[in-house]
Amino acid sequence: MAQTSRIALINVGVSLLVLGLKYVAFLLTGSIALYSDALESIVNVGTSVAAVLALRVSAKPADAAHPYGYAKAEYFSAVIVGVLIVVAAISIFREVYLGWQDPHPLDAPLRGLLVNAAAGVVNAIWCVVLLREGRRLRSPALTADGRHLMTDVVSSAGVLAGVAVAAMSGWARLDLILAGLVALNILWSGWSVLKESVGGLLDQAVPADTLSRIRRIIAAEATGAIEAHDLRTRQAGRTIFVDFHLVVPGDMPVSEAHTICDRIEDALEAEVADVLVTIHVEPEAKAKQHGVPVL
């Protein structure tokens, strides 16, 4: 968690740097498209700050009021990302509308484009870092920021090329068209982030490959039991919750059944990071598929 928080703090600094560069590019050119690019960076700053706060909350240990911990706080950060993205897109559409009524030529485009290009390079490098570390640390907040930055990098490259064409051709409305396209791209990014975050808040099951791995581990370690059924999983931030029913022979001592449970839990914890396992032991009369050893 300390490493995740450190990356999130660095993310705030990088977002502020990129915002400053893009805003300077807008001031140098007067381009609405570059303004839209800068506005997207304001969203990046806001969401990076939200990610820091969410990570600090999610790191709090479980307590009496929240016995399952605070891991879902990261999903709220990702929801904030989505909402801010939508707000930014609406603001860009407004500027496009006003600019369309009174288009004006771009000023000093070369210097502005070079500054914007520098911001894009910084963003691209940091985007790779965020996506890699977000997946490695299984942090929804970092991953959401990384994915949003990826759309920012792609749209910035398109804007850069388009504004250059608009400046050389003198077609001022091309700049506005580009800004509108950026806004549409931002909206799509916001929808993607919101969709994934809502899935986490609604206790979405783990991915199919992770579920298959969990099944294999239970099957391998449940020797002595009759079967396992009603396997359920859910994911809250970095934490994976697994619960299932384990059917054992009716005459098996409690201590022996407990040993099987411990063996399964130890194997799952060794193979699946941040997993919490709950096993309900049942007598053989509760078997749903009698004769099937496990799962």
TrEMBL record:
Pfam families: Cation_efflux (PF01545), ZT_dimer (PF16916). Residues 10-202 form the Cation efflux protein transmembrane domain. GO terms for biological process: intracellular zinc ion homeostasis. One of its GO terms (cellular component) is plasma membrane. The chain crosses the membrane at residues 7-26, 32-55, 75-93, 113-132, 153-171. It is found in: Cell membrane. It comes from the Bacteria. Keywords: Cell membrane, Membrane, Transmembrane, Transmembrane helix, Transport. Residues 207-284 form the Cation efflux protein cytoplasmic domain. Gene3D superfamilies: Cation efflux protein transmembrane domain (1.20.1510.10), Cation efflux protein, cytoplasmic domain (3.30.70.1350). Belongs to the cation diffusion facilitator (CDF) transporter (TC 2.A.4) family. This is Protein p34. It comes from Ancylobacter novellus (strain ATCC 8093 / DSM 506 / JCM 20403 / CCM 1077 / IAM 12100 / NBRC 12443 / NCIMB 10456). The lineage of its organism: Bacteria, Pseudomonadati, Pseudomonadota, Alphaproteobacteria, Hyphomicrobiales.
